[in-house]
Amino acid sequence: MAKRILHVDDDPIILDIVRATFEKDDEVTVTSVKNAFDALASIQGLKPDLIIVDIAMPTMGGFEFILELRKISETATTPIIILSGRARSLGAYNPFQQMAVVVLEKPMEPDRLRYEAKTLLARVE
Asked: How many CB atoms lie within 10 A of CB 19?
């Protein structure tokens, strides 16, 4: 069965890039949503194996979203990749390191994103 990735980002270009990064991979399916509220609403039905999330989003930002994820039993331990235009500063800030397994800077290299995602998904087995 294909592994499920939930991708949350308010930027349609980044949504397209992430979708394209995995589109030829039969082992992965990507569900993309434009905000944290839609993502939270989809958790029960989707049961993602990995979550990729932007930090700077309107209404509910990525960090608040991650805190909400950790309260839900289905996603309490789900690996998370944070995408951010400020990844270098985030990586040095300890609470962010505890929230996510990987922090990548935008614009991210698709090969690096694919590698990090596949590595995390292999651990979910």
From this structure: 14
**101: exposed, middle or buried (C-beta count within 10 Å: 0-12, 13-18, 19+)?**
middle
As for how many domains the chain has, the answer is 1
**Is the separation of the CB atoms in 39 and 33 below 8 Å?**
yes
Identify the domain containing residue 30 by its residue range.
3-124
* Dihedral-angle region of residue 47 (phi above 0 means left; psi in -120 to 50 means alpha; beta otherwise): left
* Angstrom distance (rounded) from CA 67 to CA 72: 9
pLDDT tens by residue, the chain, 125 residues: 899 999 999 999 999 999 999 999 999 999 999 999 999 999 999 999 999 999 888 889 888 999 999 999 989 899 999 888 765 555 555 555 555 678 888 888 999 999 999 999 998 76
- How far apart (Å, rounded) are the C-alpha atoms in residues 19 and 98? 26
Sheet holding 28-33, edge to edge: 28-33, 3-8, 50-54, 80-84, 102-105
Q: Are 78 and 48 spatial neighbours (Cβ–Cβ below 8 Å)?
A: yes
